[in-house]
Amino acid sequence: QKEVEQNSGPLSVPEGAIASLNCTYSDRGSQSFFWYRQYSGKSPELIMFIYSNGDKEDGRFTAQLNKASQYVSLLIRDSQPSDSATYLCAVSDKFYFGSGTKLNVKP
Amino acid sequence: NAGVMQNPRHLVRRRGQEARLRCSPMKGHSHVYWYRQLPEEGLKFMVYLQKENIIDESGMPKERFSAEFPKEGPSILRIQQVVRGDSAAYFCASSANRDAQPQHFGDGTRLSIL
Fold first, then answer.
1. Which of B7, B94, B101 to mutate to test the interface with A (most CBs of A within 10 A)?
2. Which residues contact A16 (CB under 8 A, 6 or more apart)?
C-alpha cells in the first residue's frame, strides 16, 4: 500500500463550481498534512496545511481532515481557470508525495 | 533571494557524459530532498540528505546516481554516463527540521539527454 494515495484525475469542473480533491494515507500516526499546487512546468508550492480534525478555511480553499478515516481533502470554491494545476498531497513525517490530481477548470 | 536555489535551470548532455545538478537550500534549512519528475508524472523521491549525511537514498537508482551535501557548499546530485531515460525535471527541496514537511522547492533543473 502506498503511503499517500490520490486519484490521478484529470478532474474537470466548470468555472465557478466546487472542486473536491481527495487524499488517503496509510500511517495512523501522521500528524499534519499539506497540499501543494504545481502548475505545468513549474515547481510545487505549498498552499494549505492542516493539523486538526475538521475544516480549515483560507480564502476559496478549505482543507478537511478526518484522522479516523485517514483521509484529507481540499475543496476549492468558485473554481477559476487559473486553478488548473496538479494538486499534491503530503504528510508531515514522510517525504513522499501523492501522485497528484490534475484539475482542469473549464471556462 | 533566500529561497531554494537550483542551477543550472537547463542542462543538455550527450549520452555517456556526466550531469551535475546543484542545490542550495533555503537559509536556515539543513534538510535537502531530491525528486525526479517525468513529463505528466508525479514527483518521485530520490534521496534525503542532511549536512554530510545521506539519511535515506531508497529512491536512488543503484547505479550511476549519487548525491552529497557537504559541510560547505550546495548539495550535488551527480548522474554518471547519462542515458536518454535520465531526461527529466529534477527538483530540490529543503525543510527546516526533520519532520520533512513543509518543503520549499527550487525551480528545478531540466535535464535533456541528446
1. B101
2. A78, A79
- Cα–Cα distance for residue pair B42/A47, rounded to 1 Å: 18
For A85, the closest chain B residue by CA position comes to B40
What is the rounded distance in angstroms from the CA atom of residue B2 to the CA atom of residue A39? 22
Tens of pLDDT along B76-98? 999 999 999 999 999 999 988 77
Tell me the mean pLDDT in the region A13-17.
97
| Lateral strand order in the sheet of A4-6 | A4-6, A19-25, A71-76, A61-66, A54-58
Interface-testing mutation among A37, A43, A49, with chain B (most B C-beta atoms within 10 A): A43
A98 touches chain B (CB under 8 A): yes
Residue A48 host element (H or E): strand A45-50
Residue A97: pLDDT band (50, 70, 90) is confident
For B10-22, how does the pLDDT look when each residue is reduced to its tens digit (9 = 90+)?
999 999 999 999 9
The rounded distance, in Å, linking the Cα atoms of A33 and B99 is 11
Q: In whole angstroms, what is the distance from residue A24 CA to residue B19 CA?
A: 36
Q: Estimate to the nearest angstrom the gap between the alpha carbon of A74 and the chain centroid.
A: 5
For residues B42-54, give the mean pLDDT: 92
**pLDDT value of position A99:** 87
Residue holding cell 476549492? A76
